[in-house]
Amino acid sequence: EQVAEWHIPLCAGIEQSVAASKSFIASLTATARFVAYASDDAGLINALQTLPEKLKAACNNRWQTAITALKSADKAYVIGRGLGETIARECALKLKETCGIQAEAFSSAEVRHGPMQVIQPGYPVLVLALRGPEQADCLRFARDMRERGAQVLLAAPEDIAERDLDLICTDDLHLDPVTAIQSFYLMVESLAIARGMNPDAPAYLKKITKTV
Prior knowledge:
Layout: H1 22-38, H2 42-59, H3 64-70, E1 75-80, H4 83-99, E2 102-107, E3 124-128, H5 135-147, E4 151-156, E5 165-166, H6 176-194
Parallel strand pairs: 1-2, 1-3, 3-4, 4-5
Helix pairs in contact: 1-2, 2-6, 3-6, 4-6
């Protein structure tokens, strides 16, 4: 309140885990709400009203296939594009800080410029193929990596037959990243526990750091 004339309270409550999750979802939702009302987008406004029930549905996606695949992993790529790339970066961060997996996030276009070279047979690759114009490229990338023998985990809506993990669609595709990260959070929590780690209090991490 002292550094900005206007502020948007997230109302996320006390963050009890070092690895913040609900504050990220609240930030995404607050941003979407601001855009919806600023642009007078009736469709997005209505979709925000039904978002809570979509989030509940996303909580039922346990992504057990991913837990099994990543339980012994020491590295992974997380791939997205468009709005999905932002979510991919959050996924990679959580894999690092809660599970100790050296995860890196890339756009499905960017990764082809060189980083793809490290993807060898068995290399774990989580691909987030959210709805929208970028989905086709993410699906194409997932297929290409399967042909190379990578351990692909394709997260996609139910109309994509080759998916490994289900994504819950909202009433406006611009909100799909919110339900996608909700499903991921529950998976990564279970994954950390399966790896013998405490996802709420990762070793060496602190909630607040000081810069000298």
